[in-house]
Write a structure and sequence with these properties.
By secondary structure, the protein is mainly alpha-helical. It has 21 helices and two strands. Helix 9 packs across helix 11, helix 15 runs antiparallel to helix 16 and helix 18 runs antiparallel to helix 19. The N and C termini lie far apart (56 Å).
């Protein structure tokens, strides 16, 4: 057994020890929300509680939390919350491995699986914070892997499951739209998104929760606060710092229009360049970073999918620029996490500047490997153009045909 295998084993053991050390850690979200939800499930019954609107989180997460309470008498409610988050993190790591198997060899994909468990924002999000972003992110990663393999129907199903956990699953919308514009998938497959969402809500509806509440869940969530940015490393964090009186409603409208335009532009620019898994991954990364950067009303954890995809892309591309993107994304998100977990003043603002740098590099990578924005023709790298020109010169009869 060579060093890479031993290295993966050692990293896995280290990650396990870190995760165990994180189980007793608590924070404001755990104390004010997660523990109360867990206690409500225990008090009202694991199934009956699902019929009540006692949590602003989507029901699929509450299903898992309800199952986890089976261990509450032995482990305690805090441990149950953390174990659900850790299970989601392990699921995410396996999804990253499956995605990368479409791009690299099995040993590299396995190393990436273990390294995913050690990413700073992955450790902070699930084991330390007790959050569940790994669940939707894992499903979104599965969707990207399905597109890379040409399985568009599976990609739509996985995206529907991702959205049923958290609305942030739509951040890969540019990739899905590009596959439809390229006729790699049928437009009717879009119907799988609401169908899958409805299927995931079915247990809560059977338990007694009104269908209207389940259908409008994310609209209700959007009304919880009226800030253009909530410690998130995006452009609205910077604008809010520079212009504290920035009007809320116009800001929301402008942000929604910018994000929608970005989705369409990325999809149009990439629709003819989805024949390579690495480019598929790059398109997904571009959407996962660009959309939450432009959208208002984002939270500090909303770049989690971008963090993971940036790491996955770095493992595939292996270029210095790809590595810098992954590092900058981790730094930016971790700084925004620190504003809540460590009460770091100004962390989100600095993180927004760092994320801006990461986004610039992502767009440069997109322009170099996929297509310059605004181009209607497939992008041909300069090296290939020189090769084709040389071939045309040496074979003039081919150029005349």
């Amino acid at each position: 057994m060579g060093w890479p295998q031993w290295g993966s084993i050692l990293l896995g053991v280290l990650a396990s020890l870190v995760y165990l050390a994180c189980v007793p850690l608590s924070n404001g979200d755990v104390r004010d929300h997660l523990l109360h939800w867990t206690a409500y499930i225990v008090a009202h019954g694991r199934f009956d509680a699902l019929g009540h609107a006692f949590s602003e989180y989507a029901p699929p997460y509450l299903y898992l939390l309800s199952l986890g309470t089976l261990l509450a008498p032995a482990l305690g409610q805090l441990a149950v919350i953390k174990l659900v988050s850790i299970a989601g993190t392990m699921f995410l790591a396996l999804c990253v491995r499956w995605l990368l198997l479409a791009c690299v060899d099995a040993p590299t994909a396995s190393r990436a699986c273990v390294l995913t468990l050690c990413l700073p924002t992955v450790v902070a999000n699930g084991p330390a914070w007790g959050q569940c972003d790994a669940l939707y992110a894992g499903c979104a990663v599965l969707a990207v892997g399905a597109v890379a393999r040409g399985r568009i129907l599976c990609a739509m199903l996985a995206t529907g499951v991702a959205v049923s956990f958290k609305l942030q699953g739509v951040f890969i919308a540019p990739l899905l739209l590009a596959t439809l514009l390229a006729a790699r998938g049928r437009w009717w497959t879009l119907a799988l998104l609401p169908t899958t969402y409805a299927a995931m809500m079915l247990p809560a509806w059977i338990a007694g929760r009104p269908a209207r509440d389940l259908a409008l869940l994310y609209l209700y969530q959007g009304a919880y606060f009226h800030d253009l940015a909530r410690s998130v490393p995006n452009m609205w964090q910077v604008l809010r710092a520079l212009a504290p009186e920035l009007p809320y409603v116009p800001g929301v409208l402008v942000g929604l229009l910018l994000a929608a335009a970005a989705v369409v532009l990325v999809a149009l620019a990439s629709r003819r360049r989805l024949d390579d898994p690495e480019r598929v991954l790059l398109v997904a990364l571009t959407g996962a970073m660009l959309v939450p950067y432009l959208l208002p009303k984002m939270h500090n954890r909303y770049f989690f999918l971008a963090d993971v995809l940036a790491f996955a892309y770095a493992m595939v591309a292996g270029s210095p620029r790809a590595m810098r993107i992954a590092v900058l994304a981790q730094i930016a998100s971790f700084l925004s996490y620190a504003t809540f977990l460590l009460h770091l003043t100004g962390g989100a603002f600095v993180g927004a500047l760092v994320m801006t740098a990461a986004l610039v590099l992502v767009l440069r990578e997109f322009s170099a490997k996929v297509a310059p924005f605004g181009s209607r023709m497939p992008y041909v790298p300069m090296r290939q153009r020189r090769f084709d020109a040389a071939g045309a010169t040496s074979h003039p009869q081919k150029r005349a045909t």
